[in-house]
Amino acid sequence: MKLLSFFIFFMLFFVVEVKCQMEQASVDIEGSAVTGTYPSSSSMLRGGQEKTASGILKVLVVFVRYLDDTENTSTWPNYNVLPTWAQTFVDPSIPENNLFTPLNLTDFFDRSSGGDCNGNLGQFHVLGDVVYVTTQHNQSYYYYDALVFNEILQTLDNPNESYNINFKQYDNWKFMSGDTLFNHYYKPGVGDGLVDHIWFINRGASRDGVGAEKTLGGAYFTTNDGVTINNYSGSRIFNIKNITTPRSVGGPAHEYCHYLFGGSQTTGHFDGRTYNNYGNEGRINSFALMCASNNGYMSSYEEYRLGWLNPTIITSNTNSMVLNDSHISNQAIIIPLRYDVSTGWLKEYYFIENYETQNEYSGANPFLVESRFNHTLSHGLLVYHVKNEDFNIATNSSISIVNADGRYSWNLVQGSSTPYDRSDDLIGKDVPTYHSGYDYRDYITINIGGIVYNDYMALTESSFGGNPPPNHGRRYNSDDFLGTEKDFFNTGFNDVFTKFSNPAAYLGDDATSTNSGFQVLGFNSQTKQYTLSIQVDYNGVLSLVPSKPQNIKMAIASNHPQLSWDENLEPDLAGYNIYRQENSGNIAQIAYVPKAERNLYTDTEALTNLPYDNISYTIKAKDTDGLLSVSSDAVSVMAIIPEPNLGDEDKIVKENYDFSLNQNYPNPFNPSTEIRYALKENAFVALKIFDVLGSEIAVLKNEYQPAGDYAVHFDASKLTSGTYFYSITAGSFSQTKKMILIK
Prior knowledge:
Elements (H helix, E strand, L loop, with lengths): L54 E11 L18 H4 L17 H8 L11 E11 L10 H13 L15 E3 L8 E3 L11 E5 L9 E2 L7 E2 L5 E2 L4 E4 L12 H12 L38 H6 L6 E2 L4 E6 L2 H4 L3 E7 L6 E10 L15 E2 L2 E2 L3 E9 L9 E4 L6 E7 L11 E7 L11 E5 L2 E6 L39 E2 L19 E8 L4 E7 L2 H5 L7 E8 L2 E7 L6 E10 L4 E8 L5 E3 L10 E11 L11 E5 L11 E2 L7 E2 L10 E8 L3 E9 L4 E10 L2 E8 L6 E9 L2 E9 L2
Parallel strand pairs: 1-2, 1-5, 5-9, 10-12
Antiparallel strand pairs: 3-4, 6-9, 7-8, 11-24, 12-13, 13-16, 14-15, 16-17, 18-19, 20-21, 22-23, 23-24, 25-26, 26-29, 27-28, 27-30, 30-31, 32-37, 33-34, 34-37, 35-36, 35-38, 38-39
């Protein structure tokens, strides 16, 4: 698993697989660990492929210290002694009350496989023993990892050492038919002569240069009790003494699950295939365990493919479907889209997960990630589009998250004049494209002066430590590439997913719409349940509320705010309600625009030539049945509702003001913008514009002014696109702000 350098300090666990020695046998896949043909008409291989995904797996966890490693850390305060979190990394047995040690590896697999943390067990239990071993030599002595592991195994197997491990107790599984994948069964004390699994968890770095890997780097050892340990008898993890969350089990779980999901170095990760490097498949980073970079914890889709979760398949219109928290109840929903011609199995579908678990004690999976970069993820319905199911290897399926924020065309906000120099580039959303564009989780393609770049990402320059790779440059004004709170469908933000909405319900060919979709009818904050209306035909989709209005824009017409927006695609659309909010006051409907009129509305009650109040507008679509959509995104303007005798055009009377310089509005702007500032007391004011080199461009004010609030108009029609600065000096007060001109 290759590590993207610009993600390294944001990974939950440092999982790097730059090397894989997988030598998967070429065998026919003849059966499944899950019997029967569930789900109906969509049979596939589910369960553990190369190792078991059910029952009891007894393992050995070996923490390793190089002889010359004497560093103490906050998470490992005494290098001679295992910290508590390491001592309890796995539980030795199933407790009488069926409650495992919170947040350890045993707990992770129990909850992921259906356990509820209330005494009801899941399908898979990783139990075992933990030991701590110091190598006989310094780190530099060992040329590769297998030398370390073979030495440690010899120490553990030595009857003259205190360990004297009986390795036979870790051999309890064998294949039913030779080495046929998926077909293994529990045969405690007998097994197949191979240790089932050992985790080597190293305080120090790998001698092979990896961060973590599925295999044991070529180790081979035969114990005194006749059990063989080979390259595929375990996994290796490195550099764990300084992790910020000691019980971070995502890395070890990821490596074991490579054996469950199977596949090669590329197909073993959702984002491992080469065409994914600059494509839009496999974009489920942060929300799935089996991602090469920025892996999260186990998704409901992965649980489904391991046989731990049986989703409800909706094939007819369902007006009131209740979906419990998927990571408590192990419930999910499948909306079928397309079946494989040769097998009749489900090939393409929408997979809906209720992502509402909020802490380690409230849900079945305490390891769900709640923050990425500067975002704290909200909760809601996470929708996966499985575009091309691989019936054998789940991670080889084409799958992506349906981003509730929609898909757009993108362009350069800054940097278009220097197509070969990307260090000054800043990208931004352009217009909604419903199904054919990009969302901020994608690798984004932009044409710059005839040069096509297909690797832009929605990340800020700071994400790269201030030193981005030269072929990328700065990208976006927010770190959104790994997801935000707007990934989720929810009440209030975006509650409809149909072929009329953005994002739109289309097949994976991005050309064929589908008469399937859903509406979020409600959410119970106490039970964490969502109620959905799921429709699978044309009339059913039309029965849902209209989709969220898109591309609302603000312009100024004769000093009045003027709104425009894209027309909704629903054929039963009647018109739009227009809403206005002044400052933080109540939101009130001020107009209704019928469909027959242009998608344009001018608020003649508001004036923008004397900025004072912050007035924002939203729109709701209304259909012929009177059903309303959720509100559009808001646009705002500095304006007033006029009153008689306003006074001086340049000064706006306001009490209790202080010295201040506001952000210009709009920003970015083209070609004009307004700058507001306030004077606490009478002062000589100098308000000037500068370019990025510090050269003075314009002087807007250079005079004595009395105390008050002011607004100044700046016309940049003669300037080129780019970043500019405006600076004010008023008595002892001075301040500078940045603004962006886009043409």
